[in-house]
Amino acid sequence: MAQSVLLTGAAGRVGEAILGDLADEHEWRLLDRDPPTGEQPGEFVVADITDGDAVREAMGGIDAVIHLAGDPRPEAPWDSVLTNNIDGTRTVFEAAVDAGVEKVAFASSNHAVGAYETDERTPEMYRADDEYRLDGTELPRPGNLYGVSKAAGETLGRYYHDEHDLSVVCVRIGNLTEGHPPIDYERGQAMWLSYRDCAHLFDRCIRADYGYEIVYGISDNDRKYYSIERAREVLGYEPRDNSARHE
Ligand SMILES: NC(=O)C1=CN([C@@H]2O[C@H](COP(=O)(O)OP(=O)(O)OC[C@H]3O[C@@H](n4cnc5c(N)ncnc54)[C@H](O)[C@@H]3O)[C@@H](O)[C@H]2O)C=CC1
Ligand SMILES: O=C1O[C@H](COP(=O)(O)O)[C@@H](O)[C@H](O)[C@H]1O
């Protein structure tokens, strides 16, 4: 069934992947601090996610939120991730609860667990014959402040689920690229997320029933060190792409 979905960070790359396949599948309200370029599949709200009043207004009549807005740079400075990724994410969760939204899918990142990629494990863990897997039950282990901000977003989600009964899924997105996986980059190939698998995964986040979940958002790559079993089980994720087909 089509749902009313608020998509924050709609003008970015992940937003482009989602809307590319799902424009006609749901009723969209799009939010970004950058104004839209070109025609959009729904109402577009130009606002900053740290503006509580604007975010609360954008939540009216919404069933589900896909929260992408934030600073996506692994090297982003603390001031920026504190404002955009931590404070902004808290504002989105708070407004969702106030508005009686049912579920929020939060764009977390591989960088929330980047420090598991130790010198001892790499580069072997990036290869198809290596069986090391992270599955979402492990503690966060960020390798940079951007990763810290994503771990904080996951923890905010846990809090808003436990204290306010909001359904929350945190998707630790790998490396989204259009058309083909990153070239000459084993790590990127191991965590590749194709555009169509990205759209399908967030569609499942809108449609599935869950309480609080952390899942990995990668395609079904032969090379992988993130398990996608939880996403399959809980969300019904059925990825179609595999970076090995492009090697
Ligand atoms: N692209 C990737 O491979 C990955 C992305 N992610 C996460 O997914 C989300 C989206 O990433 P991308 O689309 O790649 O980034 P992007 O930079 O292309 O898009 C982010 C969008 O959010 C908007 N934005 C940023 N701060 C904002 C604020 N304070 N208020 C309102 N809008 C704001 C920007 O204007 C931009 O349109 C980010 O949270 C990022 O951390 C996580 C892992 C991998
Ligand atoms: O969280 C993110 O991760 C991807 C992949 O990380 P990288 O270190 O291999 O580049 C990154 O491209 C994206 O910008 C970021 O938001």
Automatic annotation (TrEMBL):
<dbReference type="GO" id="GO:0009051">
    <property type="term" value="P:pentose-phosphate shunt, oxidative branch"/>
</dbReference>
<dbReference type="InterPro" id="IPR036291">
    <property type="entry name" value="NAD(P)-bd_dom_sf"/>
</dbReference>
<feature type="binding site">
    <location>
        <position position="84"/>
    </location>
    <ligand>
        <name>NAD(+)</name>
    </ligand>
</feature>
<dbReference type="Pfam" id="PF01370">
    <property type="entry name" value="Epimerase"/>
</dbReference>
<feature type="binding site">
    <location>
        <position position="150"/>
    </location>
    <ligand>
        <name>NAD(+)</name>
    </ligand>
</feature>
<dbReference type="GO" id="GO:0070403">
    <property type="term" value="F:NAD+ binding"/>
</dbReference>
<protein>
    <recommendedName>
        <fullName>NAD-dependent glucose-6-phosphate dehydrogenase</fullName>
        <ecNumber>1.1.1.388</ecNumber>
    </recommendedName>
</protein>
<dbReference type="GO" id="GO:0004345">
    <property type="term" value="F:glucose-6-phosphate dehydrogenase activity"/>
</dbReference>
<dbReference type="InterPro" id="IPR032884">
    <property type="entry name" value="Glc6PDH_archaea"/>
</dbReference>
<feature type="binding site">
    <location>
        <position position="109"/>
    </location>
    <ligand>
        <name>NAD(+)</name>
    </ligand>
</feature>
<keyword id="KW-0520">NAD</keyword>
<feature type="active site" description="Proton acceptor">
    <location>
        <position position="146"/>
    </location>
</feature>
<keyword id="KW-0313">Glucose metabolism</keyword>
<dbReference type="InterPro" id="IPR001509">
    <property type="entry name" value="Epimerase_deHydtase"/>
</dbReference>
<keyword id="KW-0119">Carbohydrate metabolism</keyword>
<dbReference type="GO" id="GO:0006006">
    <property type="term" value="P:glucose metabolic process"/>
</dbReference>
<comment type="pathway">
    <text>Carbohydrate degradation; pentose phosphate pathway.</text>
</comment>
<comment type="function">
    <text>Catalyzes the NAD-dependent oxidation of glucose 6-phosphate to 6-phosphogluconolactone.</text>
</comment>
<comment type="similarity">
    <text>Belongs to the NAD(P)-dependent epimerase/dehydratase family.</text>
</comment>
<feature type="binding site">
    <location>
        <position position="146"/>
    </location>
    <ligand>
        <name>NAD(+)</name>
    </ligand>
</feature>
<keyword id="KW-0560">Oxidoreductase</keyword>
<comment type="subunit">
    <text>Homodimer.</text>
</comment>
<feature type="domain" description="NAD-dependent epimerase/dehydratase">
    <location>
        <begin position="5"/>
        <end position="176"/>
    </location>
</feature>
